Amino acid sequence: EFALAAPITFVMVFALIEFSRVAMLTNSAENAAYEGCRAAIIPGGTAAKAQAAASRLMSSVGAVNPTITVT
Fold it and tell me: What angle do CA 28, 48, 25 make, to 5 degrees?
């Protein structure tokens, strides 16, 4: 019984972990966009400051070389 139930259980647990990570990265990208906008709209804010703020937040969750576009 264990030989049949264990692989299914492990797949479910690992799938749950991966989907949670995707949700965390999505939320982090939304927060990075928010913080980038905040950095851009304050007096003296520039596109470079917005990109730096967003990049800082994305790198904190392990995103490597995120593409950040300010239009």
Answer: 10
User: Rounded to 5 degrees, what are φ and ψ at 3?
Assistant: -65, -25
7/23 Cα distance (integer angstroms): 24
- Residue 47 scores a pLDDT above 90: yes
φ, ψ for residue 42 (rounded to 5)? -70, 155
Sequence-ordered list of residues with C-beta below 8 angstroms from that of 60, at least 6 positions apart, any chain: 28
43: left (phi over 0), alpha (psi -120 to 50) or beta: beta
Euclidean distance between CA atoms 54 and 46, whole angstroms: 13
| pTM of the complete model | 0.76
